[in-house]
Amino acid sequence: MNKLKQFFIKLGDLPIYKKLLKEPLTYVAGAVLLAVFQIAHFAALGSGWGVTSAFANWGTWIYKALGGDASGWVYYASEKMQKELNTSFLADGASIRNLGIVLGAFAATLFASQFKIKKIKSLRQVIAAILGGLLMGYGARLANGCNIGALFTAISSFSLSGWVFGAFLLVGAFLGSKLLAKYFM
C-alpha cells in the first residue's frame, strides 16, 4: 500500500499530469474539444449531440417496468420513437453516452484531487436544488434539448433556434445567479 501511495505522489508531481489533469483547460482548448467531439459524434451516429432525450427514455422505461404503457403517447408517435421505446438502456447510445459523461466527470474530479463530500447546509438548499433540477429538466424538454442539443448542436447546424436559445440561456443564467446570490449566499 505504501508503494502505491508513493506512486501516486510521484505521478502528481509530473508536469504532464499537472497540465492535463490538474489545471483547467483554456476556453479555446475547451471549444476545440467540443467541436471535435461534435464532429465525431455526427460522423459516427449521424445525429446531433444531445443529452436530455435519454432522460425521457429512462423515465418511460421505469414507467413501463412498473406496468405502464407509453406506446400511445404523442412523444412516441413516430416510428423512430417507437423503436426507442422498445430498446434497452445498454442498446441506447444516448444512455451510454450520458453514463460516460457522469463517470468521466467523476474520474476527472478524482484525478484532479477535487472530490469532496460536502455537508448539506439546510433544507432550503435541498429544496432549491430539487426545484432547480426539475425546472431545468422541464425547460430542456420544452426547448427540445438542453444546452448541448438546443444550443451547441443547433448553432453548429446553422439553426436560428440555437441563437434564440443562447440568448434566453444568458438571461436565465443572469437571473438565476442574482436569485442564488440573494437567497442562498
Task: Tell me what you see in this structure.
The chain has 185 residues and is mainly alpha-helical. Helix content is 72%, strand content 0%. It has nine helices and no strands. The chain is globular and about 60 Å long. It has helices spanning 2-13, 15-22, 27-45, 52-65, 79-85, 93-111, 123-142, 147-156, 160-184. Helix 8 runs antiparallel to helix 9 (160-184).
Which structural category fits the helices and strands? mainly alpha
Shape: globular
Contiguous uncertain segments of 5+ residues: none
> What count of helical segments does DSSP give?
9
Helix content: over 70%
Largest sheet: none
Number of extended strands = 0
What gyration radius follows from the Cα positions, in whole Å?
20 Å
Order of helices and strands: HHHHHHHHH
Strand content: under 5%
Mean pLDDT: 84
Please give the alpha-carbon distance between the first and last residues: 42 Å
Oligomer: single chain
